[in-house]
Every structure is written in C-alpha cells, then in structure tokens.
Amino acid sequence: MLINRVSGLVLPYSTKYLIDTVMVKHHLQLLKPLVGAVLLATLIQGVTSFSLTQLLSKAAQRLIAELRSKVQTHIGRLSVTFHDSNKSGALVARIMSDVEGVRNLVGTGLVDLVGGLITALIALVVLFRISALMTALAFGFLSVFALALKKAFGTIRPIFRDRGKINAEVTGRLAESLGGIRVVKGYHAEEREDNVFSRGVQRLLDNVLRTLTATSVMTLSASVLLGVVGAVIMYVGAHQVAAGSLTIGGFFTYTLFMGFLIAPIMQIVQVGTQLTEALAGLERTQEILDERREDRDPKRTQTLGIIRGDIDFEKVGFSYDGSKLVLRDVSFHAAPGTVTALVGSSGSGKSTTIGLIAAFHTPSEGKILVDGVDLSTVRLDSYRTQLGVVLQESFLFDGTIRDNVVFSRPDATEEQVMSACRIARVDEFAESFPEKYNTVVGERGVKLSGGQRQRISIARAILAEPRILILDEATSSLDSESEALIQQGLSYLMQGRTTFVIAHRLSTIRRADQILVMEQGQILERGRHEELYALHGRYYDLYTRQHGVESNLFLAPGEGDAAKVPGDDKSKPGANGDVNLASALRLVRGQ
Fold this sequence. Notes:
Strand order of the largest sheet: 6-7-8-3-9-10
CATH topology of the domain at 2-162 and 214-292: ABC transporter transmembrane region fold
Structural class: alpha/beta
C-alpha cells in the first residue's frame, strides 16, 4: 500500500521540475528521464493496485465466509432458552447480513481509507516544504473539520446499530409470514401481512434517511471546506509568487498535493460511513458470540458412558424468567426400561419437564440425576447422543425421506434404515412414490401428510437406538387406524428404553409403568392407570371426560365400579384398539 501511494505521487511531484526546470529553464535533456520516471511509477502503481485488490478483496470474502460459519456454529450451540427468545429469521439476518461489513473493513474500503491517510501524510510533508504558511492555515481548517467528523460518526453509529436490529426484525417477520403462508391464506390475511411488512420496511427507510441526512451534511461541510481552503491557497499563494518566495511550478505542485491532502478527507465521508456501518454490524455479531454456548458451561465436566437410563427428579423447580416458577417441588423416579407418562391440562408443566429431561434447560431448584450423576454437570454431547425425541410437531428438513430418517444416525447401514422404516410403517407410503425413499419432502415436510411426517420422525428415533426416549404426543397426527399400526413400532422402540410420554389421548398410555398427573407445575397424582382411575381424582376426571361414553359402552350392568377399568378386559370387543371401539360405537348409534 505504501509503495502504491508513493508511486502515485511521482506524477504530481514531477510537475514542479517539468515547469521550473524543463520549461522555464529549457533543460530539455531532463524531459526523457522525467517522463520515464513517471511511466515507471504509473506501472508500479497499477501493479500494486491490482495486487491489493486481489489480496484484500479475496481475504475479505474468505473472512466473511469464515465468520458466517463461526456465528452459525455458535448460534447452533446456544441454549434452547436463547432460541425461544429470538426469531429464527432474525438470527438468519444476523448470520448473513451483519458480517457483510468485513468486506469494507478488510477490502477496498480499508484500502481507500488507510491508503488515503498515507497519501495525506506524505502530501502534508511535501506541502510544508513548499510553503509552511499556506500549509499551517489549511491544516487549521482541516483540524476543525476532523473534530466535526468524529462527532458526526459518533452520532451515526447508533443509527446503524438500530438499522441492523430493524433489518433482523423485518427479516424475521417475513420468514414467519412465508413459513405460515397456509395460515395466512386460510384466514385471508394477505393484506394484513402486507401492512405489517410495509410498516417494517418504512421503519428501515426512516433509519436509512436519517443516515443519508447526516452523510449529506458531512458532504456539504467537506465541499465548503474545500472551497475555503482553495480560496486561502489562491490568496496567499498569489502573494508569495509575486514576492518571489514561491515559483510558479512550486505553486502548481502545491495545489496538486493539496488535492491529495483533501481527497482522503472527502473519502472519509463516504468510506467512513461504510466502515461505521460495518463496525456496528460486527458489534452486533460480537454480542451473539459473547452469548455463552450451552456446551461451554464450566460445571459440565462429567462424561457419561453408555447409560442405563435411571432418571431421578429431586425436588426440581424451574423458572423461565428467573422469577415465576413453572415447576415446583417435582420429584419422581423412572427406572431403566420403564415408561413414564405425563398427563394434565395445557400449561401444567408437562413439556417443561420433558425439556429438563432432554437437558434443554437446567433446573432452578433441586437436581436431576441420570444413573446417579447430576445432569447439570454432564457434558451434553455424551448425554444427547443417547437421547431419542419424537415431538408433537414433526420437523422434517427439505431433503429426501432417507435424508430425514438417517439424520439421527448418518452412518447407519441401508439394512438398518429399511428396518426402521418398516417398523415405523414409512415403507407403506414411501414405496408408493416414484422416487421411493429419494422423494423430496419439501420445506418442513410440506409435501407429506401430518401422519406421514410423524412416521418419519418415529423411524428417525428408532434408527438412533437411544437409551432414553421422549415421545411428545407422538401419535397426535395419526388417524386411528394408522395409530393402531404405529403403536407396534412404538412398542418395539420402547423396549428396554427409559421412555417418557406426553399424551393427550389417555387411552394410549394405559399400560405405562407410572402416570404422573400434573397441574400448575406440580405432581398431583401418580400411579398406574388402574390405581389412578380407582381414586376418582383428577386423572379419573380427565379420562372419563375423554372416554366416558365409549368406555362405559362395553360395561355390563353392575360393572361400572371403580375397580373395573374400562378397556382393560381383553375378552370384550374393542378392548384392543380405538379402531374397533369407534366402529362399535357407530353400530350402536345406528350409523
């Protein structure tokens, strides 16, 4: 950069010798060496400019790619609590947009700014040698302008930070709107979404206009400064030439070098604005990188081997916001290979309990033990690799059916993948597609039905062969016939594994080893189906509300006491599944 800027000053500096020595004194023998020096300097300037652009521009692009990967990796390892508090679209904007400023910091913007400052310093030395008086006057005006620029950039920087925030919010809302396009269209809410997006765009525009106004004021100030300095140089320079203290060639060279001194200041207005925006974006990026990754918790030092799946909750309490507890004094034991079902009304704490088992959150009070080890001290990679999760909302990636099944275990053999698909009944619909298991499912599995997506999620869990299995309403998207079939797959999956089930269809958890009835963040009742039904408590209310009519349908007179639990007598028709039950009910109703 230094060589580039020095070579760029050869041409203006040579004009003094061209005018005073070659033209005025008629030393024409110096013309060829002078022209040769100018051509050589121009060639050097061209080569170094090309090299700088290639080196720094490519370095900037590599750094942007590296920083994006770093931020994405970091965000992917932040806690579920962080992701619950931030829109995915906003995080995408921060990964893709905020790091773009590196291009100006490392690329041509930095070259222009630093190179201009180098040129300005060299020019300032030459100007003092030519005329100290004119340079001192000009430097005084420039110092005042530099102080004004510093204050202006300090004002603009927060505006750029706000722009990044607004851009992330608008992008996040747009991603939500496009992701929920069926809901938008279903409620004919296109115009409302248009208005929401338009308001966001208007906020972004208002922010941009504020920065443009500030930039315009700085440009105006720079133009006025240029005129004032030019007028001073003309006035003082003319008097010095008339007095004989400055040659005409010296004055001409002085005006050229003054241009090299002022040009970087004019560039600072534009390049400085870009760099300020870049720094604001990188500050927002740094905020993300300062968030502690969940796997960097200094307390998590224990590494688990293959676990048995013995889970203990000891007086566990949990709060999302640090003030209001959503779980209070929750204690239970899940022995290895048993099934624990969590039931209760919405908001009772079932999903929070499941989230704690999956180590998505850390208890605010009490502790959770896995094979006797405090889960809050366990390295997450050693624990979650032995965890299988089937959520109520089956999330699929935009890839093939096979891609989504092997997501839990990329190194699985083809035989293992096909076996998991058969157990989960994925083969029943996958084989009917022209591309079979290479059929692309679309974003979030949009090209498949809810039941098909759920079967793929179950196959994914089966393939993982977890020690601890979490089923969050795993059959909610299935019809009764599919559910009866998939229960066989789930029964296979649950064998020998510690399983936790959230089920709103209480008929699906009658055979659980223990049922925890939760209300307002506490365990209200616990026991097996028969025991809880006999209590005539909260579980009895929930069960009879769902199945009262159908369950009593097959009871003979006098069999309605609490000791006889509906659906448990295998000799009665319909006892083995909701399909037969529903069919019998239709027959009784004359349908």
